[in-house]
Amino acid sequence: MSKRFRKLSHTLYECKYHLIFCPKYRQRILKDEIGESTKREIENLLRQKDGIEVIEMNVQADHVHLVLWIPPKYSISSVMGYVKGKLAIRLFQRYERLGKRMWGRHLWGRGYCVSTIGINEEQIRRYVRWQENKEKEIEKLQGNLFNEDQG
């Protein structure tokens, strides 16, 4: 098996995602010590999820970029809910001043941005067309084995 794909018991997959999320009101709070702590906590949280791997991470003052391997057994929304929720709790516990600055104890903006990474669209479309043509060739060679008229 190629290193490009990973395997679950009944699934072969390559599921990589680019995820971006921001503090509420895009406040520039993820600097210096808080930014470093954010990186460590994200790595710790994602290590607890079986099969999720951080490929790249960049914590900017006002947003976080993640490139992750995520097995198909997890939904993107559940992974993001887990990361944003647990990370907010840990950062509020460690940095009391965040709780005062982020009224209502809401650290993150409501949404996130997600994009898939992997085979590009044109490659996939060519492969699907190739598969269809290949199937037609096989049917021509074999004839219709299930034709009831041939009894």
Number of beta strands: 6
Bin the strand percentage.
15-25%
Total of domains:
1
Structural class: alpha+beta
Query: What shape does the CA trace take?
Result: elongated
Low-pLDDT residue spans = none
Number of helices in the DSSP assignment: 4
Q: Given this structure, which CATH class is correct?
A: Alpha Beta
Helix/strand order: EEEHEEHHEH
Please characterize this protein's 3D structure.
- 42% of the residues lie in helices and 19% in strands.
- The protein is an alpha+beta fold and 151 residues long.
- It has one domain (6-118): Transposase IS200-like (Alpha-Beta Plaits, 2-Layer Sandwich), CATH 3.30.70.1290.
- Helix 1 (32-47) crosses helix 2.
- The longest helix is centred in the C-terminal third of the chain and has 22 residues, at 121-142.
- The chain has four helices and six strands, in the order βββαββααβα.
Keyword list:
elongated; alpha+beta; two-stranded antiparallel ribbon; 151 residues; single chain; four-stranded antiparallel sheet; 6 strands; Alpha-Beta Plaits
Task: Explain briefly what this protein structure is.
This protein is an alpha+beta fold and 151 residues long.
